[in-house]
Write a structure and sequence with these properties.
The chain is of the alpha/beta class. Helices cover 44% and strands 22% of the residues. It is built from 17 helices and 17 strands. The structure holds zinc ion.
Length: 485
């Protein structure tokens, strides 16, 4: 028995050892497997279409991360990762890599207010107030020259200028906006494009009903397009009746479309609306129920404090156009008060005829300086905030903040790569200071919109620059002759 018993104990010990050994083997093979998994990962990087590496990534995300020696991975139209160059290089393999060493990788700039074909009226007349400028030059020149071919030529000119300057999205209002959308799409640019509706006969539509029918077709045609957002653009509260404004609002509500409108641009407009309607412009638009979170209001110069609250409460986007407002001496929009209440106010150039270019770098610089001067406080509108207005806050102004305005995973790949070593940028101390106060449009090197490279090393890939200039100069002669008659 003792022997037996001893044998039993020996047997039990043996089984325990076997069990233990088996478990050890299982565990170690699991560990080996998982180790092999980790080790294999760098050998199987994820395939993407484009990597931009080695630059200073200015993300404009919520934390305002700036990543030195950073990289961005793009698949199709989408940003799939942002990180250091080493991190991204370890995780992704791309068909194409852009070396952005020594350069800034920034969100494409957003021009929140243009009349793009008016590029062809650049310099036609300067140094006049809005009323004289419009009635003596712009309206007659438009009446005699604007047709679809004119609009297309002017749009191509404006697109080329904007892409050269790192602008990747613009918000427009003009006539023949469907042709503008077509040219914009062909150039690979992103646009919120509003067909102008105004209470007098214009080049494309002669009546309100015609304009409404045109715009409804236009909006339907571009529904769900990856680049084009078609919009209604009633010209202003003083050029479109209350009844027509409400027709537009109902149609835009039905199609979930943005509505672009000039609001409170001049003191005259504010005084005229007050005399006719008994309210200032934003109060009037609010009273008739016109405002909502799809409205984009250009200028908003002559606002009361209560009107700033109305814009904020209704989620209205605003487009601040400092150079155009200065050139026409329209006034200074209360931008620091709007920013203090977190209104979605972006920057715009307005049409080239009242600016006279479509250069967002100048608008950032001008906005930052103008509001310091007007508030008598150099701490007003610091460089980073000016840059924010040209990027993520501009995206909010256009109600596109979920898609564009920052370099973030899941957003569309709208990116500009900008030199940081031009003479005008040297020496370098601070990224926002350099971008807002020193950088020029000519420092933009490469531009990507919706994942597509539209300018590489300063060469436009989707537009023919010499043909654009030739067309514009042919229109110059035509415009001069038309104003003589
Ligand atoms: Zn305008």
């Amino acid at each position: 028995m003792p022997t037996n018993s001893s044998n039993e104990i020996d047997n039990q010990c043996f089984m325990t050892i076997i069990n233990f050994a088996a478990k050890l083997l299982l565990l170690s093979s699991l560990a080996l497997l998982s180790f092999a998994g980790f080790a294999a990962e760098p050998k199987r990087p994820v395939a993407v279409d484009l990597l931009i590496t080695g630059g200073t990534v200015v993300t404009m995300d919520k934390e305002r991360r700036v990543i030195e020696n950073g990289a961005v991975a793009v698949r199709g139209s989408e940003i799939v990762a942002i990180g250091t160059s080493a991190d991204i290089a370890g995780r992704f393999r791309a068909r194409r890599t852009i070396n952005a060493r020594g350069k800034a990788i920034i969100p494409g700039l957003i021009n929140t207010h243009t009349h793009i074909p008016m590029s062809l009226f650049r310099g036609i007349s300067d140094d006049l107030d809005l009323n004289d400028w419009l009635t003596k030059f712009i309206f007659p020149a438009e009446a005699k020259n604007v047709d679809e071919a004119f609009v297309r030529a002017g749009t191509r000119l404006g697109l080329a200028e904007m892409i050269r300057g790192g602008t990747t999205t613009y918000c427009d209002m003009y006539y023949f906006e469907d042709a503008i959308a077509d040219e914009t799409k062909k150039a690979g640019m992103r646009g919120v494009l509003g067909e102008t509706i105004i209470d007098f006969p214009v080049a494309d539509n002669k009546t309100h009903e015609e304009a409404m029918a045109y715009t409804e077709r236009f909006v339907r045609k571009w529904k769900n397009d990856p680049l084009i957002v078609a919009a209604y653009a009633p010209h202003a509260p003083y050029t479109v009746s209350t009844e027509h404004l409400m027709n537009i609002k109902r149609a835009a509500d039905a199609s979930n479309s943005p509505v672009v409108i000039h609001v409170a641009e001049t003191k005259k407009e504010r005084d005229d609306i007050a005399a006719q309607k008994g309210n200032t412009p934003v109060e009037y638009l609010n009273k008739i129920g016109f405002l909502n979170n799809r409205v984009i209001a250009a200028h908003t110069v002559w606002l009361t404090s209560a009107e700033i609250d109305i814009l904020k409460r209704n989620g209205v986007g605003a487009a601040h156009n400092p150079q155009s407002n200065m050139k026409l001496a329209s006034g200074v929009a209360p931008v620091s008060q709007m920013l203090a209440r977190d209104v979605a106010v972006g920057l715009g150039t307005d049409g080239a005829a009242s600016n006279n270019d479509l250069n967002m770098w100048e608008e950032m610089d001008t906005a930052a300086k103008l509001h310091k001067l007007i508030s008598n406080d150099p701490k007003t509108l610091p460089a980073e905030q000016a840059f924010e207005m040209a990027t993520i806050r501009g995206a909010r102004a256009l109600h596109l903040q979920d898609l564009i305005g920052s370099i973030e995973r899941g957003k569309r790949a709208d990116i500009a790569i900008v030199d940081l070593d031009s003479l005008n940028q040297t020496p370098f101390f601070n990224i926002y200071s350099s971008l807002v106060y020193s950088t020029k449009a000519s420092d933009v090197r490469t531009v990507i919109i919706n994942g597509r490279i539209v300018m590489a090393d300063r060469v436009l890939l989707t537009l023919n620059e010499s043909a654009i200039k030739r067309d514009a100069n042919a229109y110059r002669r035509k415009i001069i002759n038309s104003l003589r008659k």
